[in-house]
Write a structure and sequence with these properties.
The complex is a heterodimer of chains A (378) and B (93). Chain A has 378 residues and is α+β, with helices and mostly antiparallel strands. The radius of gyration of chain A is 21 Å and the shape is globular. In chain B, a hairpin with a 2-residue loop joins strand 2 and strand 3. The chains are: A alpha+beta (378), B alpha+beta (93). Chains A and B meet through helix 4 of A and strand 2 and strand 3 of B.
Amino acid sequence: MSTQAPERSDLDVPVLRAVAAYGLAGSLVEMPPVPLARDSWRTLLAGARLQRMTGLLVQAIDDGALPATSAQVNEATDLHVGAMSTVLALERALVAVADVLYGHDVPFRVLKGAASSHLDYPDASLRSFQDIDLLVPGERTDDAVALLLDAGFERRYPPPRPDYDSRFGKAVTLVAGSGVEVDLHRTFALGPFGQRIRLADLWDSPPAVFSLAGVRLEALDTELRLLHAAYHSALGDYPPRLVPMRDLAQLALRADVDFSRIRSLAAAWQGEAVLAHAVHQAWLTLEIADLTSLSTWADGFRRGTRDERDLAVYLSDSASYAGKSYATVRAIPRMSDRLAYLRAMLMPSQAYLDDRRVGRFGRLRRGVATVFGRENAG
Amino acid sequence: VSPDLVRYHRDGGVLFRRVHDVVLLLGPADQQVFALSGAGPDLWELLAEPITVRDAVHRLADAYAVPADSIVSDVRRIFDELSQLRVLTRAEA
């Protein structure tokens, strides 16, 4: 398959990739044989922090796999203590948010780091995170937002239209006075691939369960967590981040994963290109030599014309919110929903415009240009 | 009952992570994270199950190959501090 590597990112720093792959069976990425020089060490430290990988860094040093001076050991440990202190505060907030949602029978699943650290890594301290991500059914999004607003959270951005969150949104971001950020997700991704996910599939299977401070919490099951990691890795950021790749590999190398179910769900969501791209890129970046049925399938996958067109919305330096938003239109099956979505994009509420300090005309012009630009290019 | 014979365990509401040779603790009602270092992380491991101060002293003395008498006051103090932080709970008899 064709995979375009990002031009310049943490993916280009071999020792950071080695840390990202540390402990993965079958990874061939090599650690440096001697402690890093000052500048390289600074790059590694900054990258490990940004990529939520201070736990893997400290583990690699502790195990003697990554040579480090005593000063470097102290710096890495201090950084990781800070990251874990943040994680504990986030987990305390998660327990409080869970209490609010449980109290009003709003179903939710814990996503990303808060779940994968406990469910997918051998030690929860290996995976840091900076916010709390929850999946909430679209039809309960407004309820969940109202409850958290009552609990003292504030919305980071107003919605473009009153019903946008529950019908079309990827996630609503809420922030507490303490700075804790909670993302209430409806689907896995912005844009056409997120729109095509059959949301009922995310709720049909029994959840994975873990507990925090004695509180029972539910997460997506193993296969859905893998698919979420794949969508996050392939579509979340450009250049892609290392930690979702590690999350993906961490799950894909498990012996108890049902690959046929994963492929079946990806096909039903018209997201096979996303899954194949994410798996291929993770194997390439983390230099995983072991072949699994999933990695073999990903290597042999051939994208169709629509796959290429839709992936292009995400996989470039110029990938934008507006571009993904307008590409979403094609993925909305019902004409009435398409019109409602377009209306939300072209004529958003005044509060939404005020928050972004743009005028309605400016947005309309940009929106039209994006629509026509895509159509002309496609 | 002698205080040394009361059994304690971790409070169910405490959040914690082990980092290198430190255990970070966030109690149920705390805003601040506390760090246990030295022999503290080993004691925290023992507190996964109900244990008395006396048994904890003997287990740590064995692990560190030191006389129990030499650490009993330190261990008792850590129990007291953890209790004040409300990260320990008295086990039911």
